[in-house]
Amino acid sequence: MSFNGDDIGRALDACYDAVVLPDDWPLALQALSRSVGASAAMFFPKDVNENAAHMPASPDYVEFLEHYVRGGWYAGHYRSERGWPMLEKSPTAVVLEHDLATDEERRRLPHYNDLYLRWGYKGFAAIGFQIDGEPWCVPLLRSVRQGFFEREEAGTLARLSHHFSRIARLNRRFVVARNATGLEALDRIDRAALLLDHNGRVIEMNGRAEDLLSRCRGVLVIRNGRLGALQPDSDRRLQALA
């Protein structure tokens, strides 16, 4: 399939705009998916698992993700287990469905038959990129009618990687800035609050939270970026919340 450069350019512009107008993400990503002959697109960080539904996604992907998360389909997923090592080999790698499974194997894979085909998605591609050393990708789904992504399309898709890295990095900064306003508001009413990323790591906290952690050093601690409790049972309950 040949891509229209103007359509791709307009879709990328819409994604840049969505950074400051987050309600526009679904339509921006819908435009992106259509510009490359796909039905659905989203931003997907590694190991997002049950938090996948909170990521920016096109409308069709949003509906699909609700089922994906509710059914626990992220567990033992061949696309994640086989695809991420390939994507991490190069900052602009592109992985296609045919890189992940043979035709014979696909006929037996539950994720492919009971999830993707049941939802009408036959083709898959993932465009890799990184944000501050963290692996991300933009997965693209094609319908049965649209078919598989072809190898000659991968070169064009790879050239989008640096745009996605820039868009996602800007989006992270704007999200932190927007939520920092909320942290400050909670600080003014003496409420401790922490801002967590998609993996539950602390990326910002207000002054009240800093004071609380200072007073509770024998109870609460931040380990590897995550808020934890020193008492094991309390820590398990806390991690379940985060």
Structural write-up:
- The chain is of the alpha+beta class.
- It has two domains: 5-172, Beta-Lactamase (2-Layer Sandwich); 192-241.
- Helix content is 48%, strand content 18%.
- The chain has eleven helices and nine strands.
- The strands form three sheets. Strands 1, 2, 3, 4 and 5 form a five-stranded antiparallel sheet that branches. The chain has a two-stranded antiparallel ribbon with strand order 6-7. Strands 8-9 form a two-stranded antiparallel ribbon.
- A hairpin with a 2-residue loop joins strand 8 (220-223) and strand 9.
- The model has no long low-confidence stretch (mean pLDDT 88).
Shape: globular
What's the SSE pattern?
A: HHEEHHEHHHEEHHEEHEEH
Total helical segments = 11
For the record, give the distance between the C-alpha atoms at the N and C termini, rounded to a whole number.
43 Å
Count all strands and give the number.
Answer: 9
CATH superfamily of the largest domain: Transcription factor LuxR-like, autoinducer-binding domain
- Average pLDDT confidence is 88
Main structural class: alpha+beta
Low-confidence stretches: none
Q: What is CATH's topology name of the largest domain?
A: Beta-Lactamase
CATH top level of the largest domain?
Alpha Beta
Radius of gyration: 20 Å
**Sheet with the most strands?**
5 strands, antiparallel
CATH architecture name of the largest domain = 2-Layer Sandwich
Which descriptors apply to this entry?
242 residues; alpha+beta; Beta-Lactamase; 2 domains; 5-stranded antiparallel β-sheet; two-stranded antiparallel ribbon; 11 helices; 9 strands; 48% helix; LuxR family transcriptional regulator
